[in-house]
Amino acid sequence: MTKYIIRRLLWNIPVLFLIAATTFGLSRALPGGPFDFAGDRSLPESVRENLKRKYNLDAPIYVQFADYMMDLMRGDLGPSFRYRNQTVNDILKQTFPISFQLGILSLALGLLIGIPAGIIAALNHNQWLDYLSSFVAILGVSIPNIVLGPFLIWIFAVKLGWFPAAQWGVDYTELYFGFIPPMNSDFWSHAALPTITLGTALSASIARLTRASLLQVIREDYIRTARAKGLPERTVIIVHALKNSLIPVVTILGPLFAGVVTGTFVVEQIFGIPGLGRHFVQSVTNRDYPVVMGTALLYSVLLVLANLFVDIAYAWLDPRIRYD
Amino acid sequence: MGRLLEVKNLETRFHTQDGTVHAVNGVSFYVDEGETLGVVGESGSGKSVTMLSVMRLIPQPPGEITNGEVWFEGRDLLKIDKEEMREVRGNRIAMIFQDPMTSLNPVLTIERQITEVLELHLGMNHQQARARAIELLKMVGIPAAEERIDSYPHQFSGGMRQRVMIAMGLACHPRLLIADEPTTALDVTIQAQIVELVKRLRDEIGMSVIWITHDLALLAGLADRIIVMYAGQIVESSPVHELYKNPRHPYTIGLLQSIPRLDEKQRERLQAIEGLPPDLIDYPTGCPFAPRCRFAIEKCWEVDPPLEEVSKGHYSACWVKPEGAEIMHQWHASNTEESQ
Ligand SMILES: Nc1ncnc2c1ncn2[C@@H]1O[C@H](COP(=O)(O)OP(=O)(O)OP(=O)(O)O)[C@@H](O)[C@H]1O
Ligand code: SF4
Ligand SMILES: [Mg+2]
After folding, report:
1. Could you identify which of B18, B25, B80, B181 might form a hypothetical disulfide with B232, taking C-beta atoms 3.0 to 4.6 angstroms apart as the criterion?
2. Tens digits of per-residue pLDDT, B11-26?
3. A262/A101 Cα distance (integer angstroms)
4. What is the rounded CA–CA span in Å between residue B52 and residue B98?
5. Is there a contact between B7 and B38 (Cβ–Cβ < 8 Å)?
């Protein structure tokens, strides 16, 4: 197993290299450049030329890429072209932990609600509880965050005043190990509404998947065997069916995790959360090449790691799967 | 011998999109203590659904037991509540299934799958259950049971898995074992081993057995009595030797004529019954076998024949009740002639 993990990790190095090269090439192939505008004004030609020279943008592209990779080896993601006094490392350090916290909380909420809801629906297949939970799930999937978010703000922040309407409760300087927030009321009260917004959609799709998968597994011969043994229905489901039916759920968890912890643009915008989400979008519009590279690489590394965890989880869920 | 199980007028339906499937239609039979009952019939004749109804394991919906009684140890199993029924399953009545590849849970160890029955019904703690499970595996002939108990099903061959299924079924010393084609998925030598194993254990434990199969020949050395099913009905019921000697239903005669015999040189002469069983959604009014029957008379198309006693303990549901002994005799004679 350890061998397998090491091999997988090594294998991913060329993959990540390819992603880096492609992103590097594509971002620069976009028309326009990083210094076309400063605010609303366009910069004079001479200033632009100077800036380009300063950041080595007039060198041939392979030289630029080689330089970038050399810096990357040292863990230096370069300066931001847009936020002139910040490096990409600074930006990631300040924004990624916040997106990560929101993502993890939402994912946890999604699993906590989604899996039991899926089980309940499957157990009451074609009965009112199933219809009810399927209805709620479809609602959860189809109401976009951009509607649910403001709606929650309006009720719970504006009308009831239970939670703050915006912002994130902790600053990156307060984090333990640069990642873990202090678990104070400030943190939780700010996290509540965005977590519910994001978690609702996640729990809805997890519930639907769990239900479908469980309904499939319940028809298997070994479930009939389990019932023929006289086991209570609860044991039949939890011991005999659940583990098998979680395999597809675990499969989507990899990409879901990578996507959600790197920030969700819409939710972060609605709640004014200073997360990473907006940098994915803005860096591209701004042609802020180093930020584009930094966010893309971070996402790729997370995806690669998450998928590795998924594969390890498979082996745990299904003993027929062995890696060596 | 006391009566262990008595099924009366069982009727099971499946409500599907295409209509109602009449899977089991007024089936009555019994099993005595220590007796082995063979159940034969071609695919779709309702063998499995009948036994799953007895166990109340029909998926509901789409299935529904619309009528009947299932008397076992003084109670009608169709009337007791779910909890009481769970006490019967796996404990008083055990069931093993056709495909040992899919009937064991792939993600749980053999140990877990056997011990859970012992813990559930006999209240053993885990240690006792494990020790007993090892004994059971040895009893069904699993070599190195102490080590292999911690394996997963995929690490066993088909035959070994069926042995595990049997060990699981017999864990609580049931009064009745229902075996639904347990050897169909296995090759011939393994098949014979499994039959021998069940016979031995049946005699040791003193339980009754219901053995479902397509294969009449297999039942010769195993069953005391045989019921023959066709289109969800019992068409003939008889002590085993009587049935082979003098079958009294055209369908049974056809089945016997399709058994390949070792002394027959020309296997290809063996005669399968032509035609298909009736549509169970659009169930016929007369005898369901009429379209395929070479003895059919006019009445057969109009009225479904009841099961009637032809000699002691031997019943046939047929208006004509041809003498199978003579037909079989002539048939064998002509076969031997032709092959010479
Ligand atoms: N879940 C179900 N839904 C609809 N119809 C069903 C269902 N299960 C069984 N049936 C129908 O009931 C009838 C009897 O099936 P059953 O499985 O009892 O046959 P069988 O005699 O056991 O056949 P085989 O020898 O192939 O196992 C068949 O026509 C089958 O299609
Ligand atoms: S009742 Fe008629 S059709 Fe049916 S088996 Fe007997 S002879 Fe054949
Ligand atoms: Mg069957």
Report:
1. B25
2. 999 999 998 999 999 9
3. 10
4. 13
5. no
Q: Read off the tokens for A62.
A: 């392979």
Supply the Cα-derived Rg of chain A in whole angstroms: 24
Residue of B nearest to A246 (CA): B107
The answer to whether the beta carbons of residues B164 and B114 sit under 8 Å apart is yes
Ligand 1 pocket member B319 (CB < 6 A): no
The pLDDT score that the predictor gives to residue B269 is 46
The strand pairing partners of B7, in sequence order, are B29, B70
**Phi, psi of B308, rounded to the nearest 5 degrees:** -125, 145
Interchain contact A228–B (C-beta under 8 A): yes
Please give the order of strands across the beta sheet that includes B208-213. Answer: B93-96, B176-180, B208-213, B36-40, B225-230, B233-239, B314-316, B308-311
Contact predicate A125/A221, CB 8 Å = no
Taking CA A225 as the corner, what is the angle to CA A222 and CA A226, rounded to the nearest 5 degrees?
90
Q: Would the pTM of this model clear 0.90, i.e. be above it?
A: no
**In a 3-state reduction of DSSP, which class is residue A13?**
helix
Q: Calculate the CA A296 to chain-centre distance.
A: 12
Q: What is the ipTM of this complex?
A: 0.88
**Per-state percent for chain A, helix, strand, coil, to nearest 5:** 75, 0, 25
A31-75: per-residue pLDDT in tens?
Answer: 888 887 666 667 788 888 888 888 888 888 888 899 999 998 898
Quickly list H helices, A55-184.
Answer: 61-73, 88-123, 128-142, 145-152
Q: Residue A264 half-sphere exposure, CB side, CA atoms within 13 Å? A: 26
Q: Are A66 and A72 contacting, i.e. CB atoms less than 8 angstroms apart?
A: no
Answer whether B103 sits within 8 Å of A243, measured CB to CB: no
A183: its two tokens: 């678990």
Neighbours of B302 (CB within 10 A): 10
End-to-end alpha carbon distance in chain B: 48
- The shortest C-alpha distance from A133 to chain B (Å) reads 20
Choose from B53, B55, B95, B105 for mutation: most chain A CBs within 10 A.
B105
CB neighbourhood size of B268 (10 A): 7
Crossing angle for the helix pair A88-123 and A289-317, nearest 10 degrees? 30
